[in-house]
Specification:
The model has no long low-confidence stretch (mean pLDDT about 85). Helix 2 packs parallel to helix 6. The protein is mainly α. The chain has seven helices and two strands; from the N terminus they run H-H-H-H-E-H-E-H-H. The protein has a two-stranded antiparallel ribbon with strand order 1-2. It folds into two domains: about 190 residues, no CATH class; about 25 residues. This is TRAP transporter small permease protein. Keywords: Cell inner membrane, Cell membrane, Membrane, Transmembrane, Transmembrane helix, Transport. Belongs to the TRAP transporter small permease family. It comes from Vibrio diazotrophicus.
């Protein structure tokens, strides 16, 4: 049951992370390019471009933190882990993941406590320059006592905090489960460069063997 839960939620989280990161990176690039064109060719400016780019960058970083845990992109030191026996590695890994979970849960609680007032009693608090899309004006009836928003309410971009921390906490829970079940003995990927180099050498050796067989066949 637990494995099924982590597998299903993990697949959804994978797609969500990759989609959000790709979207925000592409949107930031296009918006920045458009603003440069407006400034230098038409002597104009997209007033809300900078603020929106900052918010999109925040979303990308916070979602990317979760994605980095899944892909083992975060920096780690595994000197003691490599020297320890298998049982010791599991203990080290459990200590490390416990610290990471405590950290992410504290961040999740703090980010929720920070964001929630912006979605309730401070739902009227708008961004400085970003215009409110017409398709989202229904939120005014729900959260702003029917008064239309002129600018994007801050609870929308600020949602990156609880969403990002929730994803990060889930990824740490996923790794904790893999450590407990014996699928992993550490949080970080060990000796990635050496492993990639060995894999490349093996591929090159296979190619050389194939080329050698072909050359012998031609000579015959």
């Amino acid at each position: 049951m637990e494995q099924s839960f982590f597998a299903k939620v993990g697949r959804f989280t994978d797609k969500a992370e990759e989609t959000l990161i790709a979207f925000f990176l592409g949107a930031m690039t296009l918006l920045t390019f458009a603003n440069v064109v407006m400034r230098y060719l038409f002597n104009g400016n997209i007033l809300w471009a900078l603020e929106l780019t900052v918010f999109m960058f925040a979303w990308m970083v916070l979602v990317g933190a979760s994605y980095g845990v899944k892909k083992h992109f975060h920096i780690g030191v595994d000197v003691l882990i490599n020297l320890a026996p298998p049982a010791g590695r599991k203990i080290y890994a459990l200590i490390a993941i416990s610290c990471c979970l405590a950290f992410s849960i504290l961040l999740l609680i703090g980010s929720w406590n920070y964001w929630y007032p912006f979605a309730t009693e401070r739902a009227w608090y708008e961004t400085d320059d970003i215009p409110m899309p017409e398709m989202l004006q229904f939120l005014a009836d729900w959260l702003n006592e029917g008064e239309r928003y002129e600018k994007l309410p801050r609870f929308i971009p600020y949602m990156a905090l609880p969403v990002g921390m929730a994803m990060l906490t889930f990824r740490f829970l996923q790794i904790a489960y893999q450590i407990l079940t014996g699928k992993l003995d550490r949080m970080i990927a060990g000796h990635e460069a050496e492993e990639d180099l060995d894999a490349l050498k093996a591929e090159l050796a296979d190619v050389e063997d194939v080329m050698g067989v072909k050359n012998k066949t031609k000579e015959q």
